[in-house]
Amino acid sequence: MSLLRRRFVKQSVNSRTFLQFLADRSFSTVKIPSGRRKTTEFDKLINEAGSSGDFETISAAFCLRSTAVSRGKNAYDILISRLCKLGRIEDALIVIGDMSNGRLGLTPSTFHPILCSLTRKNKIEEAWRVVESMRSKSVPMDVTSYNYFLTSHCYDGELETASEVMRKIEEDGISTDSRSYDALVLGACKAGKVEAAMAILRRMEEDGVTVLYSTHAHVIAGLVEGGYYAMGLEFVMAYAGKDLGLDSESFGFLAGKLVKRKRFGEAKIVVKEMVLRGLRMGDELRQFYERNVRNDDDEEDDYD
User: Is residue 80 a part of any domain in this protein?
Assistant: First the structure.
């Protein structure tokens, strides 16, 4: 498939406007703090309000902070991020319009929370309209922005559509990164093409690209879901002994997958290997070991 033969290099993109301007809002219920405050205090208030979902307090704190720092870009970025976590995408876009009118420096990272939120919800058309808005404001796409689209398509196993995103990346001359490859491996596994996923993984290693733990997890999941249990163990063993963190994640992930599929025989083998290597286990795997593996080991010791 063209996606798998494509050379993983370069990208960049831009957009058209579809923002609205924020109507006046009333914050009469929020008490304005007396005395002079540091901007970090307002940042803390914005973060706390965002965690609790208190949009009115977020907005009020933002307005106060903006006054304190003459509408600094950092205050806007914080507000946009919090609004996206609350699912208030339209309000986040309006804030960007305010930033643009105030001639603050818009960067790709300003749009990241919006693109991330929309692509996760599979609102791809809306996300591309945001890209058009970026273009109209002379804000280029970066690799992180593209990765949101790539991951969304690959998660659904849409390799042809993901291939189109890769084409845009190449045309825009932006280098791909570990997240880009991770998405491609995920996409190949979701489409049932585990061999292709492993080929991409080898390509990452050849090109010196850092391989994420999640990339290994995608391959393990693909092998188990395809019924290739022995190959799953072989794959994990092939990378064992190089990275303790990776070993704990990979062996544990494989064992957990096997237990869920009731492949208890294979799961026991993996868990025993974890014990031999001194790898940490999660609570569920520890319970599985105590109930199904420890007694077997004790009986073997008694026999010896």
Answer: yes
DSSP class per residue in the chain: -HHHHS--------------PPPP---TTSPPPPS---HHHHHHHHHHHHHHT-HHHHHHHHHHHHHHTTS-HHHHHHHHHHHHHTT-HHHHHHHHHHHHHTT----HHHHHHHHHHHHHTT-HHHHHHHHHHHHHTT----HHHHHHHHHHHHHTT-HHHHHHHHHHHHHTT----HHHHHHHHHHHHHTT-HHHHHHHHHHHHHHTPPPPHHHHHHHHHHHHHTT-HHHHHHHHHHHTTS-HHHHHHHHHHHHHHHHHTT-HHHHHHHHHHHHHHT----HHHHHHHHHHTHHHHHHHHHH-
Count of domains for the chain: 2
pLDDT in tens, 120-167: 999 999 999 999 999 999 999 999 999 999 999 999 999 999 999 999
Q: Is the pLDDT of residue 3 over 90?
A: no
Q: Is residue 203 part of a domain?
A: no
Identify the domain boundary among 71, 105, 139: 105
Q: Is the dihedral of CA 259, 263, 264, 266 positive or negative?
A: negative
Residue 173 has pLDDT above 60, yes or no: yes
What pLDDT is recorded for position 63?
53
pTM: 0.74
Residue 274 has pLDDT above 80, yes or no: yes
Q: Is residue 160 part of a domain?
A: no
Quote the domain boundaries for residue 229.
Answer: 212-304
By CB atoms closer than 10 A (0-12, 13-18, 19+), residue 82 is: buried
Residue 29's pLDDT is: 36
- Residue 12 placed within a domain: no
pLDDT > 50? residue 223: yes
